Amino acid sequence: MSTRSQVFSSDFTDTPYWWKDWRPHDDLMAEVPRDVDVAIVGAGYAGLSCALEFAKHGLSVAVLEADVPGIGASTLSGGQVSGAVNVGKAPSGKKLDNAVSELRQQALLREAAASYGVFESILRDNAIECAYVKAGRINAMWTDAHLAAWKKRIVNLNAYASAGARILSRDELRDELASDIYAGGVLLERAGQVHPSMMFAGLLAAARGAGVTVCSKAPVKSVTRSGAGYRVETARGALASRHVVICTNGYTGESMPHLKRRVVPVVSHQIATEELPADLQASLIPKRRGISETRRVVNYYRYSPDGKRLLFGGRARFYSLDRRQSGAVLHAQMVERFPQMADVKVAHSWGGTVALTLDFLPHLGRTAEGIHYALGCNGSGVVMMTYLGYKVARLIIEGQSPESSAYGSPMLTHPLYRGKPWFMPALGSYYQIRDVIDKRRQHA
């Protein structure tokens, strides 16, 4: 096994792999307008898709970004896309049967399936080139118990979400994935991959082309009622707006304390390997599917769009790590799954902040002050955050209440949680220990 100092390539960088093709840049210092129809806080997938939908219907829109558009999770994700795979899933990989009724599960799955169609139509209608391929996805089963639970779960996935899901035995999975660590898998045909920063760049260009004003370095200090609308104070001036939509997800700040108490920010880490030898390029994931696990502390991975590198991600730790530390942890996890990768080095290591919710479900809604929001995709946000932003815009345009969406239920909080996830190191360690125990029981 390589030592920590030996796992990095000579040209190692902590610059995200995706940024080699498009990286966030600060050329959007547009003046904060004095008044607009809609002010959107957060220039990620959700904020931009929301803005684009409003602009298509002739409304004036300003998107207010605290830093540089794209600096957050939207250009840092693993780029795996699907509809409904993670709806109503607890950290153990099991359904939330006790928390979500059967009828609501069906509604959630139907709408999540629709979200995939919205995602594809946004790419198509705006000619967004982002290396999108519909190669399918495999949920790799950590234990036999997880496989048994998924045998029940795919019935609803296929009936209500058109997921194209089928069980893979351990031997069938071995034909798809050159690893012996899993108990089997579930193949989901209605899934794929994108280049996340190129998708973001395309969405940004489409929004700006539709007339949206995107303001960088304009962190929001406060949002207050003013007559029939709102006054939004930013670091670069104030504006008046008829509607306000919060799309900050894992970066929700002090200006929205009510929402900050309802999302738990967690860093998801990733690495990209150096270019792989030809035999590994051909053999690790021969059909180039996306892979995700059913562990509580999940790992996920795929090839780079050119097929030359493995991109491997997960919650390396639940406390602060520098990029070499997180890269070393992920390299060890990668080699645990693929011992044949022991001598392959890490070329890039990075991370982005996602937002978990206490019921493990995405949410859109409206606060008591009438401020709309789209938040909490629990680490699976390429499709869902894009959809929730679009959906909030549709609800406002059509005059519908958030409750008309399956994702319009109130967000939960806890009396001991004020927005700082003090409990995550202990909870994360507990989940990691449970994963180890489950695997040992499997071997026993």
UniProtKB/TrEMBL annotation:
SUPFAM superfamilies to which the protein is assigned, alphabetical: FAD/NAD(P)-binding domain (SSF51905)
FAD dependent oxidoreductase domain: residues covered: 37-395
Entry annotated with the keyword Oxidoreductase: yes
MF term (GO), any: oxidoreductase activity
GO CC terms of this entry: cytoplasm
Keyword terms of this UniProt record: Oxidoreductase
Domain of life, source organism: Bacteria
Name this polypeptide is given: FAD dependent oxidoreductase
Organism whose genome encodes this protein: Caballeronia sordidicola
Lineage: Bacteria, Pseudomonadati, Pseudomonadota, Betaproteobacteria, Burkholderiales
